[in-house]
Amino acid sequence: MELKPWYPRDFGHVLSNTLSEEEVTIGLNRPGCSPRFVYGILMLPTILKYYIDMDPAVNIHKNMIQATLTGYKLHQFAESGTPVITPSSDPQATVKGVLIFGLNEHQRNSIYELEAGLMNLVNVQVEISQKDTRNLRSRRVVEAGAFAWQGPKEGLTPMGTTTWPVDEFLAGPFYENIVHAQQRASMGGSAESESTSRVVRLSQRQGSMSSSPSRRFESSLDSIKEEIEVMNIHDDI
Questions:
Q1: Does residue 197 lie in a domain region?
Q2: How many C-beta neighbours within 10 Å does residue 205 have?
Q3: 135 — alpha (psi -120 to 50), left (phi > 0) or beta?
Q4: Phi and psi dihedrals of 227, rounded to 5?
Q5: Domain range for residue 51?
Q6: Which residues, in sequence order, are bridge partners of residue 68?
Q7: Residues 144-153, mean pLDDT to the nearest whole number
Q8: Percent of the chain beyond pLDDT 70?
Q9: In the predicted model, what is the mean pLDDT of residues 41-49?
Q10: How confident is the model at residue 201, as a pLDDT?
Q11: What is the distance between the alpha carbons of residues 211 and 127, in angstroms, rounded to a whole number?
Q12: Run of H or E including 229
């Protein structure tokens, strides 16, 4: 993925990040923290932290690196543009995304609650870049979990690209409102952090119950807007 000047700083760190061989090995062998390969909005650290209920101050981007998945293609739901990956018989088919290390069981379950209503968790092999003690880079294939579409492709549109374009999402209200909610949580202390956590749990429940990606993300956006309005009322008081 190409790093662009207008990308958020934390996402820029992800795109330029390369872990050492030792760091990769430690991440793979850490008990109960199997890595996850993501290719949609969860590639963005701010969005990831929101959905896994992580403190906004945590530098999760340090555990995130670019990765390439072979044997899958990117599709999107025609009505919403939500990306999904599907198995492909083309040996040259690839999907570029992000590999996340160090997620605990609660955090991985949060991703499961978000994605499992639409897709199945599958074991995949992805290729990453690592550096050795001399700072020389090499390629390495590692095992990870990823969510893939296993059903009929009716309603799916091939994207014709290996990477989900994040630009439109970054410019939209969903990302803006999540950034705003996390900023308010960081500045407001435990009370607002708990409020943000309630929004996370609500949006995850709505996502797992909804069969439509567009309804899922619209519901999440409405929840975020409602929470921000409540926070503003409290500030005025």
A1: no
A2: 12
A3: left
A4: -65, -40
A5: 9-181
A6: 96, 127
A7: 90
A8: 79
A9: 96
A10: 41
A11: 31
A12: helix 213-236
Q: What is the 3-state secondary structure (H, E, C) of 70-121?
A: ECEEEEEECCCCCEEEEECCCCCCEEEEEEECCCCHHHHHHHHHHHCCCCEE
Task: Centre a 10 Å sphere on the Cβ of residue 143 and count the other Cβ atoms it contains.
Answer: 12
- The two tokens of residue 231 are 């926070």
Give the position of tokens 């906004």.
56
Q: Compute how many other C-beta atoms are within 10 angstroms of the C-beta atom of residue 135.
A: 8
Per-residue pLDDT band at 224 (split at 50, 70, 90): very low
Q: How many domains does the chain divide into?
A: 1
Is 219 a member of any domain?
no
**What CATH number does residue 131 fall under?**
3.10.490.10
Query: In angstroms, rounded to a whole number, what is the distance separating the alpha carbons of residues 27 and 24?
Result: 5
**Residue 199 confidence (pLDDT):** 46
Give the span between the Cα atoms of 176 and 94, in whole angstroms.
30
